[in-house]
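Figure 2 data, in text form.
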Amino acid sequence: MGSVTPEPVTLLEAYDAQLRREAEVLTATDVTSDGPLVRARFDWGGFVTYRDLDGLTGTTLDDLILRTVAYFRDETDLDEFEWKSRGHDAPADLREHLLAAGFTADPEETVMVGEASALAVPVDIPAEVMLRRLDPEASTFTEDVHRMTAMQLAAFGDGPSAASLIASLTQHERLTEAWIAEAEGDVVCAGRLEVVPGTDFAGLWGGATIEAWRGRGIYRALVSARAQSALDRGVRHLQSDCTPMSRPILERSGLSRVTTTTPFMWRRSPEVA
């Protein structure tokens, strides 16, 4: 008998198999599980993920959600945690179950996946703009991280703290890279590359450009620089959770929409005096 040719794996199947569950908590300070869920603690808060929910519905799903809330509320001192959902997950009414349990939904983002080689292409940018990767061994490293995170806060209104990014870059430097674009002495664009070991993937995270410098190719150039670095590391695919602002840029570069993601946030209620 001849061998059976395996069915080709779609980008969504590769994303589900390689980038969910354990792959999302590699840098967590503590990881536990409950059924299909992985619960993790990071410096910035709690996080819940899964590959699928094992067909749980109705009151059985509610019980799992309530146990998860109880775990973070009673067994940790974290003020909040994120339940990361995807648009193709079952059951279809997961959103309603989470909202009923006291979660709030952050804005939906688009999950984009594609070949790193499609993004590692030359991009024209203004002559005064310089791109570089932050070096943890450089004397300006701490100052550079603070400048980077301050720019992201100004552009996005949120983002990782300088302390948490410094920890990632020094403790997990083989997995995390931080890149900035500078002009006129200021950081005008920034983003991270996070390699997922044991997979074909790296993630593009935290991409932001201050408003005055948008539309000049700088964001696209920083994507290209990170894509080339990923290729140099042997990475095949890049993945990004995109806002409506960044999605068109990555689509033009060759990344494809595979699903959506909505973070559902639980926050500890303030104690009543």
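Caption note: The chain has a mean pLDDT of 92.
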